[in-house]
UniProtKB/TrEMBL annotation:
<feature type="domain" description="Serine-threonine/tyrosine-protein kinase catalytic">
    <location>
        <begin position="3"/>
        <end position="64"/>
    </location>
</feature>
<protein>
    <recommendedName>
        <fullName>Serine-threonine/tyrosine-protein kinase catalytic domain-containing protein</fullName>
    </recommendedName>
</protein>
<dbReference type="Pfam" id="PF07714">
    <property type="entry name" value="PK_Tyr_Ser-Thr"/>
</dbReference>
<dbReference type="GO" id="GO:0004672">
    <property type="term" value="F:protein kinase activity"/>
</dbReference>
<dbReference type="InterPro" id="IPR011009">
    <property type="entry name" value="Kinase-like_dom_sf"/>
</dbReference>
<dbReference type="InterPro" id="IPR001245">
    <property type="entry name" value="Ser-Thr/Tyr_kinase_cat_dom"/>
</dbReference>
Length: 111
């Protein structure tokens, strides 16, 4: 769930078998959660991260919770978050096009 909101792997700066990271996770270390995602989604992520497995939601509870989001105020939160993300992406797209053109020009000159 966290990867869907961040677009990256959690703790990407660490090696996969980093023992220090394993200790940090056991002590409660978690990646930062994007504050712009819907509150209901953020709370569910945090419940899934509970260090006590008995306090984590079961798969059927996850399914039912996500299904109910479509019917309530969470749906509006997701729509607002989507609009915000689209505005951010469209603001970045001009920069990406410019970078793409500059890259094409420099590769043309190298030939």
């Amino acid at each position: 769930m966290w990867m869907l909101t961040s677009g990256q792997s959690p703790f990407a700066d660490y090696e996969y078998y980093d023992h220090l990271l394993q200790i940090k996770i056991c002590k409660g270390e978690r990646p930062d959660v994007n504050e712009e995602i819907p509150k209901c989604y953020r709370e569910l992520i945090e419940r899934c991260w509970n260090s006590d497995p008995s306090k984590r939601p079961l798969a059927i509870e996850l399914y039912n919770t996500i299904k109910l989001w479509r019917l309530g105020k969470c749906y509006r939160q997701f729509k607002n978050a989507d609009r915000s993300a689209l505005r951010e992406i469209s603001g970045q797209s001009d920069s990406l096009v410019l970078l793409s053109k500059e890259s094409s020009m420099s590769s043309c000159r190298m030939r």
